[in-house]
């Protein structure tokens, strides 16, 4: 077979498969009766051994009584305050170097999510594998935990890089025309730990195989979304030519993407064009693997949420995509004494139709809560709204090079 | 079929297909009896209508007699001076806006290569499609021309982005153990023209589908190269585990990559760390699509050669890969009056074994010639040599984020 046939075959396969059907046992995410879907992001818990693990970078008066249990208490309080529909843990969930046993540490770290009966999802950071389990085994342990929607990888994808690459669909409200259609798409990726390429120092990155999976999945979800009015039936005639029109860009469900290590593009901002703070450098990989471009090309990603840099908690918009940090959450993680640990909340809201009933998503908002007595909410902002989506930066042609 | 099965199938296909077999009619590139392979790069000819098309940016005294024919003459002289084994035209071969008929213009532009009976290859720039033919038809016309090894795309790859993505293998010297093995791999890609994504302004970029093809092809060529001592037989037992060892990185033939628009990484240099000149900004795409990272990961690319920025002609090394410009060649292209048009030559040399016979490649050198009375050679440098290939920048671990 010629080399290039692989590319042909690949695309033949991509365009000919239906959207993945959820296993019957898997809990389906859905917008609530008020037309809302709330996501709590918890990043960099750095959990180790619980009560015996001291806090880092807290005020002297906090230190004597501070441990991993403060992290646990903060998760509990955030859940009570926000009543999220989904909790997303964006890596460095445990701090492997100090965790005596990875399973015990994970069980304790995720316990508040499990006891709340709320669905949760997790991705890996760069420290999760530094205790007694490999990255694969850490993710396998997570996937087997109660109430999680985490997946090891797309089923049977033995050759995708990393562990914990998967997507979740959030269906429209009951008794609406979107009842069986994903109106909000969530993507979870493994951004790796450290470079394994000798000539490249530093942190890992999202590889080509993962980007290909993202591109395929995004394309199929868009195709499914466009099959109006009935949800997820076979593709309509002339679909591909329609897909090439700019209008098709708008006819897709918004996507949110979660992973651990920020992209190099996070370094594009300063305080004049972001909301939140930037108190340290952007610790992305030292190379750019192109995932930001892949997301912009996909045309439906509205925001990206990472962790890793505990002292940065901003959201900045670049080329139509909001690049957000969760902000440091864990007490056994480096931080800044006197600068409270924090978590990010995202709320997607459906459009209420004039005739009654519910439409597609009209806005995606975010804020953070800091771990003070009142869990004070800060930095509220609109990440995306239907009315702001029509901006068209036309391509400048006629360049003479 | 589940979404992820596509990824599995893709990899199954990749790992199970043999290296492409050349069509019997296709001329095979091979190192000469002196153990050398010479490539002449001609970039940005900007050919239009021949004698009636005036020059741009030449000295006042040159202007009255200067036309596209000066470009033709320069190609002829370069061929006579260097006697290359392959001529590579790296895009903007014609300047579509001013070419009355694209076919006529191309026939004239490539005529010196054809009349020399030397194999030649071409990729597209951002201006080649601006006359009477689409990008696809421009590439189809090129592919049908005499003595060219250009290909429209990997056979049957209807869904790879762009036109003119292909690779060529340069076999070892006759009567050596490399007689049937590619010891130098050449890759040619279509870097596009302009962005078609509304939110991204500016020039095009190398897409995921093209990078996937590059990754697959590079991997298969490496596997083939490693099948010692006989060339290109079935894979050896335990090959995959060997591939994971750092030594395997070295056991592959060097690769050279040609396309038109420079990568964002070309902006990494200043005069302290490159050879040549930088007289204008780097007009890459406004986004980074990750192809530089894909090449570094592949582990065998030694140098990249682009055009597009006529006033830049440097080579700079980043993470083990030399990023080179060809330098502006064409007289109907913007330039700088008094700064001569130029072309780049690359020579790969085989190692002469002590016992007699020839080994693998020992060095890759480059220089440019400027279009003065003596075709003066300038900026000679070693791009890569066997002895310099053992540098290992180990990954720094232990970071606490």
From TrEMBL, chains A, B:
Chief place where the protein resides: secreted
The protein's required cofactors: Zn(2+)
GO molecular function, one term: metal ion binding
Keyword vocabulary terms for this entry: Glycoprotein, Iron, Metal-binding, Secreted, Signal, Zinc
Domain spans labelled Calcineurin-like phosphoesterase: 37-310
UniProt GO cellular component terms: extracellular region
Signal sequence, start to end: 1-23
Keyword Kinase assigned: no
Entries under Pfam families matching the protein: Metallophos (PF00149)
Locations listed in the record: Secreted
Keyword Protein biosynthesis in record: no
Coiled coil region boundaries: none
Stored Gene3D superfamilies: 3.60.21.10
Protein family (similarity comment): Belongs to the metallophosphoesterase superfamily. Purple acid phosphatase family.
Assembly, per entry: Homodimer.
Designated name of the protein: Calcineurin-like phosphoesterase domain-containing protein
Annotated organism of origin: Ilex paraguariensis (yerba mate)
Phylogenetic lineage: Eukaryota, Viridiplantae, Streptophyta, Embryophyta, Tracheophyta
């Amino acid at each position: 077979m010629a080399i290039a046939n692989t590319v042909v075959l690949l695309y033949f396969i991509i365009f000919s498969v239906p959207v993945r059907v959820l296993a019957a046992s898997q809990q389906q995410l859905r917008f609530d009766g008020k037309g809302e879907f709330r996501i709590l992001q918890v990043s960099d818990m750095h959990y180790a051994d619980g009560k015996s693990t001291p806090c880092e970078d807290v005020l002297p008066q906090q230190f004597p009584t501070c441990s991993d249990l403060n992290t646990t208490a903060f998760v509990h309080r955030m859940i009570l305050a926000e009543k999220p529909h989904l909790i997303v843990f964006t890596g460095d969930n445990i701090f492997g170097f100090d965790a005596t046993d990875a399973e015990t540490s994970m069980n304790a770290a995720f316990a508040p999510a499990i006891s709340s009966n709320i669905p949760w999802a997790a991705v890996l950071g760069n420290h999760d594998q530094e205790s007694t389990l490999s990255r694969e085994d850490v993710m396998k342990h997570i996937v087997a935990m109660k109430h999680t929607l985490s997946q090891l990888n797309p089923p049977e994808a033995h050759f995708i890089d990393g562990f914990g690459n998967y997507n979740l669909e959030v269906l429209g409200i009951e008794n609406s025309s979107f009842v069986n259609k994903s109106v909000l798409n969530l993507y979870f990726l493994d951004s790796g730990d450290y470079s394994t390429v000798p000539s490249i120092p530093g942190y890992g990155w999202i590889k080509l195989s993962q980007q290909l999976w993202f591109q395929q999945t995004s394309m199929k979800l868009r195709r499914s979304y466009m099959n109006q009015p009935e949800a997820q039936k076979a593709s309509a005639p002339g679909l591909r030519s329609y897909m090439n029109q700019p209008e098709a860009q708008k006819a897709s469900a918004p996507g949110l993407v979660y992973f651990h290590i920020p992209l190099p593009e996070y370094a594009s901002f300063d305080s004049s064009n972001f909301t939140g703070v930037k108190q340290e450098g952007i610790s992305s990989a030292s190379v750019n693997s192109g995932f930001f471009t892949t997301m912009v090309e996909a045309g439906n990603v509205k925001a990206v949420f990472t962790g890793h840099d505990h002292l940065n908690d901003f959201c900045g918009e670049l080329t139509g995509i909001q690049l957000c940090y969760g902000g440091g959450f864990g007490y056994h993680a480096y931080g800044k004494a006197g600068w409270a640990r924090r978590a990010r909340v995202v709320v997607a809201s459906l459009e209420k139709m004039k005739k009654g009933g519910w439409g597609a998503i009209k806005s995606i908002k975010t804020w953070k809560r800091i771990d003070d007595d009142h869990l004070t909410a800060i930095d509220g902002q609109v990440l995306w709204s239907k009315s702001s989506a029509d901006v068209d930066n036309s391509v400048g042609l006629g360049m003479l090079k």
